[in-house]
Amino acid sequence: MTDQLLDVALPVPLPRTFSYRYRGQEDGPRAVRGDLVEVPFGRRRGVLGLVTGTAALADGVLEHEGAALRDVVRVLPPEYRVTGDRWRLARWLADYYMLPLGEVVPLFHPPRPGTKMRASGAIETDFPLPDPVDIVPTPDQRRALDAAGGALARGEYAAFLLHGVTGSGKTEVYLTLMEEALAQGRSAVYLLPEIALTPQTLARIHVRFGDRAAAIHSGLSAGQRCAVHEAAARGEIRVVVGPRSALFAPVRDLGVVVVDEEHETSYKQDEKPRYHARHAALVRGREAKAVVVLGSATPDLESVANAREGRFGLCELKSRVGGGEMPPVEIVDMRGAPTPDGLSAPLVDALDEVLAAGRQTILYYNRRGFARVLQCRDCGEIQECPNCDIGLTYHLRPRRLLCHYCGHTRSVPETCPECGVGEFVPGGGGTEKLELQLQSRWPEARILRLDHDTTRRRGSHRRILAAFARGEADILVGTQMVAKGHHFPGVDLVGVLAADDGLAMPDHRAAERSFQLLTQVAGRTGRTGAGRVVFQTYRPEDPVILAAADHDYTSFVDAELPVRRALDYPPIRRLLRVAVTSRRKGAAEEAAEQLAAALRANLKRPGLTVLGPAPAVFPRLQDRYRTVLLVKGSLRRAERVWLADCLRSLKEGRRGLEVVHDVDPISIY
Fold it and tell me: How far apart are CA 562 and CA 555, in angstroms?
């Protein structure tokens, strides 16, 4: 067999491909575009790259374009080949997010591809399985299925926003549409915002699709993820469910993509490549001629704008399945009300009633740890992180001070480092403190806590949520993890501590995020009977709090969109954020000023605005000073290419300088 010259895109920040020689076996398969290959790069032997082009290589040729050719270590099996709609999606991701193609390649394969699975192929779930009963769609569900199913039957791309109140049966619409796709010989991808939701949803999916469905997420071993990837490529698995990474599964003839809880910020990856899975799902659906369904009780305002302008079809589920009412919400004014344990009298009374009735409660408190800060009683000094200039959070189990931004940890000092005397006073609270206070007030209650600290071990999400779903706990305390799409029929009460906590964030999405979280967590109750919700707040008259208490999404949108329009923020105009960071404050500021001047000189056309530079809201994180610029408006392809080159040039020659760009950022702080 004649040797081949392969052009390979590698996961390095260089806008080029690299040439390698492939010496295949006699009469063996040749490498083709889209193959995943393992090649040496620098001192590393096993770097995974994507073949972007091939050519015959004459015998005896040892170099190409003046560089010595190195040999491909191996070509991975065809199950790892990137072709068709996945190839086109990869090219789009690289172009839109201003990255070399090689830097998006890791999205398209599991870690350590080719790893064999030691355990059985079954994906375990210990959630109670729902009964496989025949479900008659409601009229609203039927209308949604007719619209999406019609596009599926025609084999054409279409996007739909499924806006349904909590408990309105959005999941049943997804599953029925996926059944229609499988009946046509096509496949489906079901995206969820959190690993924590995957086992509960997978239990429902297994009832419908059996072994044709499987999950892909970071909680699985490398061997498990590889097994699912390979089975999907062979057509043995037709439904893949999971968070962001599931979108890139090589399912055959993709027919339906579901993005459940499409408003969730966790669909945006916070490290390179900083893509948004909702946007990428729409592109993959377009390239596969598939139907994409974005579902939420509180859709992202950008999705609402797309539906109102006709780019998405709009399907609405306005009432709960079975005719249940939305739970009443009581707003408790915390101003001037002393509550040593953070629980108001109305919330305590409600907890007493629910516990006496043998029903369940969810308490949402979006703060981890025992106390937000630890302060010296004598001099008032707060224990701060040496890397981030942010107060360290006090954790009781284990007893330590922890920075939630860089991970710095230290033991609690015996005396104040500033004054050398005094004792420390914990300030503020968190889920850990709330759990202990609940145990003290209701010693007989069974309490579980769901936050980052209790879910570090593999499978811990599943164990905690499954235990609560089986009724093995009376109270579930947690951060945002408890608000995201769970279905617990036994929950009669939801309590929200610090309902106004996110409203003061310096971000244009602060009101939207707060409304979404409050509405979503309130929707966890009243699914199978009477339910009630208590919002504790220091801002009881805030329009966001009032709209969430009324379950009135329309009034919130109608009030928020004019604000966005006045400020030219999404969905009115797109955003690009550039952060310049350095260990030296002056270096970051100087480089940011140079970049701002270059942007203003080259992005002059109407519709583009450059803001900044300005210090980030948290000016120093992880021992790096941060200066931020914003570009408002949609960049053309030539402008994206120029900007990517500009950012690379800025970084070159400046030791220790980092320049990070984020297209369509979900926050600007």
Answer: 12
Q: Residue 120: pLDDT above 50?
A: no
Q: What is the mean pLDDT of residues 646-650?
A: 94
Residues 6+ apart with CB under 8 A from 140: 164, 168, 315, 316, 317, 318, 319
Rounded distance between C-alpha atoms, residue 666 and residue 268, angstroms: 7
- Give tens-digit pLDDT for 269-283: 999 999 999 999 999
* 216-230, 237-251, 365-379: range with highest mean pLDDT: 237-251
pLDDT at 198: 65
pLDDT tens sequence across 462-472 = 888 889 989 99
Is the Cβ–Cβ distance between 322 and 120 less than 8 Å? no
Which pTM value belongs to this model? 0.92
Give the highest mean pLDDT range of 127-141, 311-325, 512-526, 535-549: 535-549
How many angstroms separate the Cα of 615 from the Cα of each of 171, 586, 621?
43, 12, 12
Q: Does 26 have pLDDT greater than 80?
A: no
Report the alpha-carbon distance of residue 498 to residue 536 in Å, rounded. Answer: 6
- Phi, psi for 521 (deg, rounded to 5): -70, -35
CA atoms within 13 A on the CB side of 360: 27
What is the SS3 assignment for 631-648? EECCCCHHHHHHHHHHHH
| Polymer length of the chain | 669
Q: Which long-range contacts (CB under 8 A, 24 or more apart) does 598-607 make?
A: 598/646, 598/650, 599/629, 599/631, 599/643, 599/646, 602/639, 602/642, 602/646, 603/631, 603/635, 603/639, 603/643, 607/573, 607/633, 607/634
User: Which tens digit of pLDDT belongs to each residue from 659-668?
Assistant: 999 999 998 7
3-state helix, strand, coil in the chain (%, to 5): 35, 25, 40
Q: Contact at 8 Å (CB) between 159 and 310? A: no
Joined together, the tokens standing for residue 462 give: 């599943």
| φ/ψ of residue 418, rounded to 5 | -85, -50
Q: Collapsing DSSP states into helix, strand and coil, what is residue 153?
A: helix
Q: What pLDDT was estimated at residue 330?
A: 96
Beta strands in 197-248 (DSSP E): 213-215, 239-242
Q: Which residue has the higher pLDDT, 356 or 341?
A: 356
Phi, psi angles (nearest 5°) of residue 161:
-100, 115
The dihedral formed by the CA atoms of 41, 45, 50 and 52, expressed in degrees to the nearest 10: 50
Residue type (1 letter), 241? V
Half-sphere exposure of residue 319: CA atoms within 13 angstroms, side-chain side = 9
- 12 to 87, 132, 542: CA distances (angstroms): 19, 48, 48
Residue 122: the pLDDT is 44
**Average pLDDT value for residue range 474-480:** 93
**Euclidean distance between CA atoms 627 and 609, whole angstroms:** 17
Tokens 């004019």 correspond to: 562
pLDDT at 125: 53
Residue 347 CB-density burial (10 A; 0-12 exposed, 13-18 middle, 19+ buried): buried
SS3 567: helix
Task: Give the Cα separation of 395 and 369 in Å (integer).
Answer: 5
| Cross-strand pairs, 631 | 576, 610
Whose CA is closest to 295, among 186, 405, 202, 175?
175
**pLDDT at residue number 22:** 94
Give the integer Cα–Cα distance in Å for 471 and 51: 52
Bond from prior residue into 571 cis (ω within 30 degrees of 0): yes
